[in-house]
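We emphasize that the prediction below concerns an isolated chain of 338 residues; any contacts that depend on oligomerization or on bound cofactors are therefore not represented. The input was used exactly as deposited, without trimming of termini.
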Amino acid sequence: MPDLQTLSKSQIASYVLAAAALFGVLQLGLLSALLSGLLVYSLVHMAAPVLGRLGVSNGFTRTLALALLSLIFIVLIVVGVTSAVSLLADNTEGIVSLFQKMAEIIDTAQVHLPAWAREYFPSNLEELESLAARWLRDHAGQLQLVGRDIGVLIIRVVLGMVVGGLIALTSFADSRWPGPLAVALTERAEFLSNAFRNIVFSQLRISALNTFFTAIFLAGVLPAFGVHLPLVKTMIAVTFLVGLLPVIGNLISNTVIVIVALSVSFVAAVGSLAFLVIIHKLEYFMNAKIIGSRIKARAWELLLAMIVLEAWFGISGLIAAPIYYAYAKDELKQRHLI
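Result of the prediction step, given as a token string:
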């Protein structure tokens, strides 16, 4: 395996260009294009061996088949994103309604708390509730303006998917003999693609599992006990979306559910918190098996990377942190530095 002493000028240049590109993606707000491109690229590469086993040749037929697969993947992703945006933007069952509901609950929290519980809250609880409610209302109003940026986001996502599909096709069809820098850059791209697959597809499985159990609880367990929470569909959608963020996603979804449950009763909120804690404790073992076995990273490592990049680049850094960290760790392992 190569180490630091065997690095060529082309390899060093590839590391510099890769670092500059990853930094530029966050600085220029192109993370959505990068992730969508990596998604299509990874799906095409995962589908290519299947075509080989089906007897599709490496010539024009295979290229055409991969092009059709790329188009199908792009259409499916666009439909999925559009459906998610439509759900979250719904005036009656959307994210804005959820935020407004949370603001109302926080603003009247003392009504839902038993007398013995109020004694353990600080004397300035009303001021804290007012500040929290005002913050939620301000952001709920701002979310109504997000529609102006959705068009730009969709364009970047679609262009990123098209570029990712074209790169995937080129990697199979290009028969030219590449130069040393091209080879080194291809190696960097492969490491990044592997990191993306390890994190995103693993986290997708974890989020789907978490959403499944949460949906059973919200739509099955609670109604069986006569507890009917508002905005259940929105909370399930939020649970899946924020669940794509390692570690912090569960904290966000749990907070939302417990606050909404408080609108029904204090017992419902405590019961919801207890159930979610138990479920997530059980999921931690599976999370460690799914993600930890792939990138050999502990939860605190991912959380630290997320804190640093979030402070540097905001929400884009928070989303990119697990992938960037997995990529950096793979490169360091390749050079026997860790």
